[in-house]
């Protein structure tokens, strides 16, 4: 791959590029889905391609291809330069990049069992058995069943005219199951495990999927789905809300992760629910949450779905603070956007979901730091509250301020004890007010959750990201169906 990289970079230099980089990427995916006793998806996909970015005349150009031959590399490099020069001619201010330490390095996801070496028959067999037990649990009420697995690997080469040459192998896998319970007089009720109906994922080997213990959780999840069909409706009131990690991860994702992406703030990205209220004038001035709220962006924790060695600009994985003791203190940035607002470094989160896509600022692992509480202590300390789990629906405005979330299941808390199940739970809030009401976050059930389907950009890109959290408590939160709705 080195000769291809050198050809691309030399071509960009010769044609007037002041900076260029190339990513050569081989992507492999394996998707398996079993639905109602039938294999509905069984796919293995592999592709190799490259993408070239070039800076010329103060503008960026990008072009890519799935044909990594020398003639095609030269043609694509020439195209990237032409686009860069055309872009530069329209800019009022030339692109500047913050300095970055040039690296010659390699990184590999630490794994014990290569997901792509585990026989397909073994994976299919596990999913079929899960689906079968769900269908047999109570066939009069359990009417829909589904079990899923996904494995993914990327082999990347990154090289730049600054002298960087980095090889990486990123591997992740995971999955889960869901079922739908239907009984007379009740809307269908879904329960999923682990987490949302898409499952849970980690940059790990097949051992992570095995550790989810799907079969051991079938009966509990099916029983919860059945119980929801006759459960009490979530009341409409203001009350203390406890979010466990399966729901808190999405709260973090939507109301912290996306609005701290600097391209949204600067207006160069507005797809998928808009821009951001966390504008540059609010940096180190906005009281985002209570003193108990510290949120970080990091790409270094083993197993995090947003963990890697280097981003797609060759920036080394790192940890930065977004919110410190409730104060908004940092952004997720690129080398270009960091320079635009006077930051000294990129956050190291530029990634693309394929070699033919331009890297965007993407979440890595966005984590809520734990406080000194234990989960049971938070519950015991709650006089009256509702504990919610597992996202079912979400809505947020184009500034990431006003939101509404629905979860699959909730439990009432009375005098410090978990009581009856509640169905159709929802809650609403305004981001700074909501985070300002948080007074506790557990440490004993804190872990990294992974979601492989974060959408951003036009044309759209789908990225894998992580969120570290436990169970958190928020006060005076509106729950239930709002009046007039």
Radius of gyration computed on alpha carbons = 24 Å
Task: Report the major sheet.
Answer: 8 strands, mixed
**Helix segment count?**
10
Name the poorly predicted regions: none
- Assign the structural class, choosing from mainly alpha, mainly beta, alpha/beta, alpha+beta, or little secondary structure: alpha+beta
Distance between the termini: 58 Å
Helix % is 10-25%
Number of self-contained structural domains: 2
Give the overall pLDDT as a whole number.
96
Number of extended strands:
24
Assembly annotation: single chain
The shape, in one word, is globular
Strand content: 35-45%
Brief summary:
By secondary structure, the protein is an alpha+beta fold. The chain has helices spanning 2-14, 70-90, 120-137, 206-211, 218-228, 245-257, 262-266, 335-340, 375-380, 431-436; strands at 19-35, 38-56, 59-65, 104-108, 142-160, 165-181, 189-193, 200-202, 232-233, 237-243, 295-298, 319-324, 327-328, 350-351, 360-361, 365-368, 384-396, 402-414, 417-423, 426-430, 438-441, 447-456, 461-469, 472-479. The strands form 5 sheets. Strands 1, 2, 3, 4, 5, 6, 7 and 8 form an 8-stranded mixed beta sheet that branches. Strands 10-17-18-20-24 form a 5-stranded mixed barrel.
């Amino acid at each position: 791959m080195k000769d291809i990289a050198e050809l691309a970079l030399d071509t960009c230099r010769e044609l007037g590029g002041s900076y260029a980089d190339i990513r050569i990427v081989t992507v492999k995916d394996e998707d398996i889905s079993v639905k109602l006793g039938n294999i509905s998806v069984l796919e293995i996909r592999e592709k190799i391609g490259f993408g070239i970015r070039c800076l010329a005349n103060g503008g960026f150009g990008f072009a890519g291809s799935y044909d990594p031959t020398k003639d095609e590399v030269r043609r694509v490099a020439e195209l990237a330069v032409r686009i860069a020069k055309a872009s530069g001619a329209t800019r009022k201010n030339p692109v500047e990049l913050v300095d970055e330490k040039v690296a010659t390095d390699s990184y590999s996801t630490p794994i014990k069992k290569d997901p792509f070496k585990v026989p397909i028959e073994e994976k299919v067999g596990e999913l079929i058995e899960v689906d079968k037990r769900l269908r047999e649990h109570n066939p009069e009420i359990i009417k829909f069943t589904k079990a899923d697995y996904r494995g993914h690997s990327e082999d990347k080469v990154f090289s730049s005219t600054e002298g960087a040459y980095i090889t990486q192998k990123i591997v992740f896998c995971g999955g889960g199951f869901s079922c739908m319970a239907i009984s007379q007089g009740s809307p269908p009720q879904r329960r999923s495990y682990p987490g949302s109906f898409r499952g849970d994922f980690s940059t790990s080997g097949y051992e992570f999927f095995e550790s989810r213990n799907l079969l051991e959780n079938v009966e509990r999840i099916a029983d919860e789905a059945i119980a929801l069909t006759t459960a009490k409706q979530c009341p409409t009131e203001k009350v203390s809300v406890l979010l466990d990690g399966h729901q808190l991860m999405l709260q973090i994702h939507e109301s912290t992760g996306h609005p701290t992406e600097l391209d949204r703030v600067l207006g160069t990205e507005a797809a998928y629910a808009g821009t951001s209220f966390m504008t540059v004038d609010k940096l180190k001035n906005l009281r985002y949450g209570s003193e108990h709220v510290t949120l970080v962006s990091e790409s270094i924790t083993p197993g995090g779905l947003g963990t890697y060695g280097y981003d797609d600009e060759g920036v080394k994985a790192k940890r930065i603070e977004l919110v410190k003791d409730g104060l908004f203190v940092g952004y997720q940035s690129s080398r270009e956007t960091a320079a635009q607002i006077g930051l000294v470094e990129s956050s190291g989160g530029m990634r693309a979901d394929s070699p033919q896509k331009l890297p965007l600022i993407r979440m890595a692992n966005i984590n809520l730091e734990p406080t000194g509480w234990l989960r049971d202590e938070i519950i015991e300390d709650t006089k009256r509250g509702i504990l919610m789990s597992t996202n079912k629906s979400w809505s947020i405005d184009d500034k990431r301020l006003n939101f509404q979330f629905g979860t699959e299941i909730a439990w009432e808390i009375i005098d410090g004890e978990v009581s009856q199940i509640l169905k159709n739970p929802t809650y609403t809030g305004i981001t700074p007010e909501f985070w300002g009401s948080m007074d506790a976050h557990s440490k004993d059930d804190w872990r990294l959750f992974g979601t492989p389907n974060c959408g951003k950009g036009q044309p759209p890109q789908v990225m894998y990201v992580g969120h570290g959290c436990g169970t958190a408590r928020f006060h005076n939160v509106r729950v239930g169906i709002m009046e007039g709705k």
